[in-house]
């Protein structure tokens, strides 16, 4: 299995210089979760990983023989740009080492650095000549020995349509954002035939007509499977339905079998069924439209790739998956399900995910959580811990997401003032006693949890002052 082993980011986004170690213990899921406040660089990490793997990036031409890498507008996050002749000592760059998890060998290195000629980015692969102390420290982990691997060499060459027909692939990398939706689309039966699965695979917000591609893929697979079955070729029909069945089963599991697919003919149309009612993609709940958009797109691409081992189901192929806040449109119940479900559907995926959701963080055991914090405008890695399904949501909020406001703004403000005056009363300072009585009276109407919080302190106050503020007997 091909996996990202180490990552170093320097002068990109909010990072001045930060290393990440993505090794995992045996038996632990290869899942890496990035958390931190807005602006701490979670998306920068994912886009950086995408840049180091982008097999078919978006370019714009800058003069003869010079291309400016503009995928995900990532070049805008770079602070410093170098002359190409000085690429051995770049100031803004992202470096990653890539490992074969089976042999434990480092099989590739990638470098994405800024270029002063075009104010864009360039990538260097294989054995990279770079003079940097932090990169040297990473290389010491594998003794500066890189065992080059044909599988990753094949992938990192620009995967044009002709190229994908000549090569077989052992792995692939994909990136998605939760800020995307599927819409209803007109079916064009020949469109899926010309689709390149690597085109925009690492653009987090795809700019092509992916909705039409997904619908065409569903109809194409359904139709071919039906034809093969009429000819008695059940195994071939099953292979055609492989990716499609994964999508259908995953949506059914996520929604407790409330949603299913239906393909209509004359003309062809893909709709969903909700409690036996036909619903077009456009009017589905936003959370479901978002999941269908990225998961449908992913399975469609996996289904189209020419895999070296075709006996392995498409969803069980070796992939790296980069997911940026995929929970953004999901109800907490679905947030809790989405990561375990993704791991179940894609069991051989290395998953990198950014999130603000406590429901994702405690939905799986032993995933690595990278806590980022911002100090003086620079992001640093504060801690690395393992996820635990035994952690309560309140524990995750306070200790991982570092969010301490359990109640609304007004109640939080009143509780803060309550605690301030409580300390005064304990010390026999009754200056603000009338204000305190009003706050107590107000907090008692805010529900059982708030009442329980203030009651313990009010009982203590009664023992110290002899005044019963809880029952108004003072």
Shape call: globular
Q: What structural class is derived from the secondary structure elements? A: alpha/beta
Kindly report how far apart the N and C termini lie.
71 Å
What's the order of the H and E elements? EEEHEEEEEHHHEHHEEEHEHEHEEHHHH
> From the structure provided, what is the oligomeric state, counting identical versus distinct chains?
single chain
Helix content: 25-40%
Q: What is the number of E strands?
A: 16
Rg (C-alpha, Å): 27 Å
Strand order of the largest sheet: 9-13-14-3-15-16
Largest sheet: 6 strands, mixed
General description of the model:
By secondary structure, the protein is α/β, with parallel strands linked by helices. The protein has 13 helices and 16 strands. The longest helix has 21 residues, at 210-230. The termini are far apart. The mean pLDDT is 83.
């Amino acid at each position: 299995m091909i996996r990202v082993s180490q990552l170093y980011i320097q002068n990109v986004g909010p990072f001045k210089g930060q290393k990440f170690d993505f090794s995992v213990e045996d038996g632990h899921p290869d899942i890496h979760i990035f958390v931190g406040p807005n602006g701490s660089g979670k998306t920068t990490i994912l886009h950086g990983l995408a840049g180091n793997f982008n097999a078919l990036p978006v370019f714009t031409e800058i003069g003869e023989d010079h291309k400016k890498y503009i995928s995900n507008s990532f070049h805008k996050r770079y602070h410093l740009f170098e002359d190409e002749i000085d690429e051995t000592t770049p100031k803004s760059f992202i470096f990653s080492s890539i490992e074969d998890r089976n042999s434990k060998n480092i099989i590739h290195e990638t470098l994405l650095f800024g270029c002063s000629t075009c104010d864009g980015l360039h990538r260097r692969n294989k054995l990279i000549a770079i003079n940097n102390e932090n990169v040297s420290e990473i290389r010491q982990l594998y003794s500066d020995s890189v065992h080059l691997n044909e599988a990753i060499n094949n992938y990192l060459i620009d995967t044009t349509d002709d190229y994908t027909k000549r090569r077989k692939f052992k792995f692939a990398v994909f990136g998605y954002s939760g800020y995307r939706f599927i819409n209803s689309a007109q079916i064009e039966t020949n469109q899926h035939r010309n689709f390149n699965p690597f085109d925009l695979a690492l653009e987090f917000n795809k700019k092509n007509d992916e909705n039409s591609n997904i619908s065409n893929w569903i109809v194409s697979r359904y139709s071919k499977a039906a034809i093969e079955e009429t000819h008695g070729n059940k195994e071939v029909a099953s292979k055609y339905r492989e990716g499609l069945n994964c999508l259908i089963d995953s949506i059914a599991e996520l929604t407790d079998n409330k949603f299913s697919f239906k393909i209509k003919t004359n003309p062809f149309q893909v709709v969903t069924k909700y409690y036996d009612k036909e619903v077009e993609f456009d009017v589905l709940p936003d959370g479901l439209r978002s999941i269908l958009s990225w998961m449908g797109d992913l399975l469609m691409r996996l289904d189209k790739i020419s895999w070296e081992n075709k006996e392995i189901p498409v969803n069980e192929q070796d992939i790296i998956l980069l997911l940026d806040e995929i929970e953004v449109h999901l109800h907490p119940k679905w947030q809790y399900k989405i990561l375990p479900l993704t791991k179940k559907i894609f069991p051989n995926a290395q998953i990198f995910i950014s999130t603000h959701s406590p429901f994702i963080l405690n939905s799986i055991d032993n995933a690595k959580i990278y806590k980022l914090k911002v100090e003086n405008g620079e992001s640093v890695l504060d801690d690395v811990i393992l996820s635990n399904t035994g952690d309560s949501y309140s524990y995750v909020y306070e200790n991982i997401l570092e969010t301490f406001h359990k109640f609304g703004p007004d109640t939080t403000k009143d509780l803060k003032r309550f605690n301030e005056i409580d300390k005064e009363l304990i010390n026999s300072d009754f200056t603000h006693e009338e204000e305190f009585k009003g706050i107590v009276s107000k907090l008692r109407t805010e529900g059982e949890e708030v009442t329980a919080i203030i009651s313990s302190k009010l009982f203590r106050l009664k023992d110290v002052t002899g005044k019963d503020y809880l029952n108004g007997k003072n």
